[in-house]
């Protein structure tokens, strides 16, 4: 084709000229920079300032990170390592060895290491349980039951105890539901609600402890013999194991002391490369020894707990007949002791863990999740109450919400730790974690109520009117029409409230719970790590950032999803 | 007296069913563990290790009592408490004994319905300054900025001291030792004041401890001791005499190493024999068995051993015995006779 | 809600109507609710009374009038350790109010700046703003407070360094930035300061009136209003004039002459230079001339006359001086205040930035396009068209941020800022063992403050709300 044309017509262009490259200033990085960084002099100035800020921040902290130490047994050792390996470091380096030593503690508090699978499982199950709630269409319906069972399951997983306790507790709701159902048929809604609440409370307060004790007693009586044998065997086996561990630990400790002495000598002599190499070789060996020591001391702790348990059980077994006799005569203390002993002997399930052992991020997550989970129903009720036509209810709700929101969480936490004992009946005494969860629930309920109120207000008025037009009564219209829509709108707000609450859990340290920040104070109390400052805060801040940032992104994503749904 | 709480059923495992009414000893025995209130972190006195095992001087007292009562020094549950909630926790029965560097004062002993069982550490509020300031006495501190670790009496002692000496100062009250230490090292304060033991512990962790001096003035008396509730005299006796047993053991030369041996057969010293139960039955008078003191001493050693291991001169904290030496060595540690 | 047809004609009132008749049911429910709430409150009250009695305590407030015994570093009202607990509480209260007020102002400024920056087309600026917002929003405030306190302390010099010469004071030896705080000169009010105060008030009033009048004039004639900076200059000029007149007539005249010479040099220099070189360069030349005059010629020139007019002003300044351990004199803005203020306003500012961003995005694009079509520049578009409309979206969440900031100021104890939580709710409670009373009073204070703030802000919101006709 082109050949023929070439012969016949001389000046016909047979192919397009390739478009020439844009000028250098209009392509690639240069163009991008011109548009995004230096479009005018104000922008240019801002860019320069921004770069300067980034530079000065990096210049201040990068060397510190660069010279940081991850392997050391104490702050002083960190200092030695830095002095030997990077003697020219201006501001020294970070001693992140404290994190390698204590990160498990920062995550789980004092929760025993061999039981860590329980909180982890609870955490994983949280997402499994949240799935069907957040995406009801994508998950099979039966999974909803998992979501409903989750609260009971998680309490059992975290605190341990006999497997039937959560079932019995859940039974309270079932009983309430059944009574409510029949009550509704007989006497209408008000009667139904009252009857349901009363029956559930009666079950929990009066019947359930009896059933629980009965079950424990039965199980305990049935296996008294085996327990006695088992305990006897334990009491022999545990000290043996302990002894083996102690011997090995003593060996390792001797080795550590030896290595420490060598280090001491090295630090004393002049610094050359050979010395540096020798020093680092010793540090490496120290690390391996310490790693083994860490595991051993974990085992030692495990066995000491086991031995305490075994001794308690042995003494309970011994006292049992005496208590039984006294309890039969109506001695209240003996009755209580008996029920406690049966609780220990008849335990079928997970080893109990007291909430005192909770700490670190685990505690923060527990308080945050429990606070939001429990406050949701309360918050919805408060939001409805605030819009109610009933003056008394409305005023009460407004006063509650405003009072709670008007006072800082710290003051509420102090109330929980110091004053709740005054407000409750004399002799009542329960767990600080539970007290804090209750207080945090009330606190976040007020915030959730405001979020839900926003959702209710955002709903077009036509929806309310349509519900009325259909002849639905108040609760039906709320349950079937208004709340499903309003709650959907409020989900991002609820997630944001959760993020806020999660961050605020750092305040429980002020009343003595070992949240990550207060735990960092405990870690600093050990003379090995006293004086470590930034490293712990950086780690804690980073974990918080990762959690909150991802939740925040999720909330944004959710917002977009929901918006699409509305079109 | 035990009242059920509504949520109790749901979180039954989280409930502590302690009631103040029963005798504490029976409660502790039935529970199989002693609840001991400690500070959530005070170097040398109470500090959790990487496994969450508590260690320290205050902790050791509880372990000794645990050993005496429960035959097991590890059967102690440690409850970290803040200064503000410690007394409430004790009077509400959440803990059986408070061993949390608490100063014995008149009003606490009487007005707050508590009983101090003795003194396990004689402390006092002191000052630490950088050596380069050239200060040798707290009276030279006119115009100084003072970092205070806020406690219960620290601020008051300081205000009184400076007022009575007619010196001006600028208080910088700070809640935790970590922040106070950071401020002091950065030079934001000229002086750091808290209990002398705390100062020593803090100084020991500095990069260059010799660059800081602890001034000779001790401006307050802080006799620190374990506390129990009013109204349970038997429990008070147990706690008090366990502490005394530790102190007496040091005086008598009974240590964790030789206690088993000495307790095996009566010795020539009748006091040792009574203490270790080879003569008479002192244990029965406080509702315990004959071997109670043996176990208490075996748990962590006598008073001197506990001191040396946790805060003594061989530790990084390096406190000298000072006032806390035995009375025979010029100190104030003086256990009443065991007879 | 009540879709009631004609009430059925029944004779008399039956008890069951209380439950089944919608007319009465609401009353029944309310009575029940009232009984429940009252019963609950009474239950709490009686428990408290029993518990207090059991512990041998009582509810009395007389401890407030006993000697406090502790010192407070930052006092807006005079206080010594001999004063009462209630005075200590008042000192704390003012400290809380101070940090809350300043915090709200700074947080708003930061929020607006970073909110706008985040939408900026400048890549670096918008990313930096995003890092700031996300960094502060996603880490607990307590950590930030502690961290910023430590950074502020580490980044500044200790007073000792000023002695050794490692650090020096700023602004002609009048300001010292140390790690204990920033020391600035403090005014001493001598005789006649009242006149100055009156003049200041009058001048500010006049400037505001002028501004309002010029805005009205703009509506009537289209002339642009008096710029705000001119108002500020006028106020400062008026105050300076009276100040120097008070200090001495001759001094005032001399000062006016001095200022006049400088202005003359600037104007003449600029005019003359403009004829030869571009404007920017001319301005630089004028500036150089002023510096030349002021720093090299003025001294010898005025020295020639050998005339020192009497100078006896009504308000003098007390300058900070390095004493034994520390600076004395002047006004000390403590590091705890600076750090708390920074932390609170940076933290809240991050939230406000998001609110501002959302508010700006909520203004439809047509508005800015219309403004551009009218020929408004970007910054005028922002300040005249977008922000006023965004305000309506911004203000309601802003109120709750202000409330949050106020409540969050109660974390001050962590870095030793003596707010009401640290004095009344902290040391006083510790000293007296009156936790019930102390915490109740502290809570009440925050509650009342929150209610006042939200009432005030709601009033403001109503006044800027779009008036719907």
UniProtKB/TrEMBL annotation, chain A:
PROSITE patterns recorded:
ABC_TM1 (PS50928)
Q: Which residues form the ABC transmembrane type-1 domain?
A: 361-555
Sequence intervals crossing the membrane: 41-66, 115-135, 142-159, 165-182, 189-206, 361-384, 391-420, 432-452, 486-512, 532-554
Where does the record place a coiled coil?
A: 242-269
> Which CDD domains does this chain map to?
TM_PBP2
The way this protein sits in the membrane is described as: Multi-pass membrane protein
Q: InterPro entries in the record, alphabetically? A: AA_ABC_transptr_permease_3TM (IPR010065), ArtM/GltK/GlnP/TcyL/YhdX-like (IPR043429), MetI-like (IPR000515), MetI-like_sf (IPR035906)
UniProt keyword annotation of Transferase present:
no
Where found? Cell inner membrane; Cell membrane
Keywords for this protein: Cell membrane, Coiled coil, Membrane, Transmembrane, Transmembrane helix, Transport
Record bears the keyword Magnesium = no
Which family does the UniProt entry place this protein in? Belongs to the binding-protein-dependent transport system permease family. HisMQ subfamily.
Its name, as the record gives it, is ABC transporter permease subunit
Instruction: State the organism of origin.
Output: Marivivens donghaensis
From TrEMBL, chain B:
Keywords from UniProt, A to Z, are:
Signal, Transport
- What are the Solute-binding protein family 3/N-terminal domain coordinates in residue numbering? 33-262
Which ranges does the record mark as transmembrane?
none
Q: Give the residue range of the signal peptide.
A: 1-22
Q: Which Pfam families match?
A: SBP_bac_3
Kindly give the SMART domains that the UniProt entry links to this protein.
PBPb (SM00062)
InterPro entries recorded = Bact_solute-bind_prot3, Solute-binding_3/MltF_N
The Swiss-Prot or TrEMBL record describes its family as follows:
Belongs to the bacterial solute-binding protein 3 family.
Q: What is this protein called?
A: Transporter substrate-binding domain-containing protein
Its lineage reads: Bacteria, Pseudomonadati, Pseudomonadota, Alphaproteobacteria, Rhodobacterales
From TrEMBL, chain C:
- Output the CDD domains linked to this UniProt entry: TM_PBP2 (cd06261)
Sorted UniProt keywords: Amino-acid transport, Cell membrane, Membrane, Transmembrane, Transmembrane helix, Transport
Instruction: Tell me which residues make up the ABC transmembrane type-1 domain.
Output: 93-457
Gene3D superfamilies attached to this UniProt entry:
MetI-like (1.10.3720.10)
Annotated membrane topology is: Multi-pass membrane protein
Q: Transmembrane helix: present as a keyword of the record?
A: yes
Predominant location: membrane
User: Where does this one sit in the cell?
Assistant: Cell inner membrane; Cell membrane
- One Pfam match, by short name? BPD_transp_1
Q: Fetch the SUPFAM superfamilies from UniProt.
A: MetI-like
Transmembrane regions? 27-45, 97-117, 129-152, 188-210, 226-245, 251-273, 280-302, 337-360, 439-460
Which family is it part of? Belongs to the binding-protein-dependent transport system permease family. HisMQ subfamily.
Q: What PANTHER family is this protein classified in?
A: AMINO-ACID ABC TRANSPORTER PERMEASE PROTEIN YHDX-RELATED, MEMBRANE COMPONENT OF AMINO ACID ABC TRANSPORTER
Protein name, per record: ABC transporter permease subunit
Could you tell me which species this protein originates from? Marivivens donghaensis
